[in-house]
Write a structure and sequence with these properties.
326 residues, MetI-like fold, 70% helix, 12 helices, mainly alpha
């Protein structure tokens, strides 16, 4: 027993134990890759975004177009010929009842429209919320009080009803200026409304974090060394606020995609002949008894997109949270 103990504890002085040093980005990436659901959701999100933005190329490869109607695909009752809404090799997702348009092309262009609206609205929300949140949280004072009361005023408004009530008049104003016409004007108005009513939540989050960091040692040390406010904001605050912005982006995209579909469904978003999920679902409600595939397929695609982005957002949030492993 004594010999075994000596052999077991015999460690030479030449042995060196190396401790791997990792940056916060590497640690966060390691947490994310260990989350299998998040990885699969990220792959699915990239797939949906890629397919949406390359919709013109993909529809051309399949040989269909979102605005074309096809002969011989509808019966005498203007319903798709064949099972599951006329699904075939020529029309992978079936045919739209009444018009004879290809549902595969409509879904791709609908995803493209939803992603464009969601990305622009998210970028606008992030930009305004970050700028105003840092300014009010770091400098405080009267500006912070004025912006705070204005954000309270905006939060008291029922944003959804305001958009429904004001969208059509605002579209007319935008068209009168010559900035955009038709559905382009509708997209501009919808994005402006989404940003106008959406920046306050992110602004409050950034403001609270900026106020907290303002009293931290690294900021006070920079102030003691004579650093300007601009340098402190750019070099000290922004690098510590970007993780919050990244999480907000990943969680805002699915919300704005669902919002775009909802407002198009209600008639204040993108309208025909352009395609969007809201228009497809609004039309599919009339045919759900005779052609349930026309409702279930676009609805399933929209649910899959929103679910993938939500799961990706949850995974990113957990990866960037230093307390996630506890």
């Amino acid at each position: 027993m004594a010999d075994a103990t000596v052999v077991e504890n015999d460690v030479t002085n030449d042995q060196v134990f190396e401790v791997a040093q990792r940056t916060p980005k590497q640690i966060a990436w390691g947490r994310f890759t260990r989350n299998k659901v998040g990885v699969y959701a990220g792959i699915a999100s990239i797939f949906f975004v890629t397919v949406g933005f390359f919709a013109p190329i993909l529809t051309r490869l399949v040989g269909v177009n979102a605005k074309d109607t096809y002969d011989g695909v509808l019966d005498q009752f203007a319903m798709p010929i064949g099972k599951w809404g006329g699904i075939s090799l020529a029309h992978p997702l079936g045919i739209e009842p009444g018009t004879g348009r290809d549902l595969f092309a409509l879904s791709l262009y609908g995803a493209r429209t939803s992603f464009i609206v969601a990305i622009i609205a998210t970028a606008g929300t992030i930009s305004i919320g970050m700028l105003v949140g840092i300014a009010t949280g770091y400098f405080k004072g009267r500006v912070d009080s004025i912006v705070g009361r204005f954000s309270d005023f905006l939060l008291s408004f029922p944003g959804t009803f305001m958009i429904i009530a004001l969208a059509i008049p605002m579209v007319g104003r935008v068209e009168a200026t010559g900035l955009a016409h038709g559905n382009a004007a509708r997209v501009v108005v919808l994005v402006l409304f989404l940003v106008f009513f959406g920046w306050t939540g992110f602004y409050r989050l950034i403001r609270s974090q900026a106020m907290s960091m303002r009293e931290r040692d690294f900021v006070m040390a920079a102030q003691a060394m004579g650093a300007s406010s601009w340098r402190i904001i750019v070099k000290e605050l922004l690098p510590n606020l970007w993780p919050t912005a990244i999480v907000f982006v990943s969680l805002s995209l699915p919300g704005y995609i669902a919002a775009e579909a909802t407002f198009s469904f209600l008639g204040v978003g993108v309208q025909a002949p352009d395609a969007t999920f809201g228009l497809i679902l609004s039309d599919a409600v009339s045919y759900w008894k005779n052609d349930p595939a026309y409702l279930l397929i676009p609805c399933g695609i929209l649910i899959a997109i929103v679910l993938a982005l939500n799961l990706l957002g949850d995974a990113i949030r957990d990866a960037l949270d230093p307390k996630a492993n506890r």
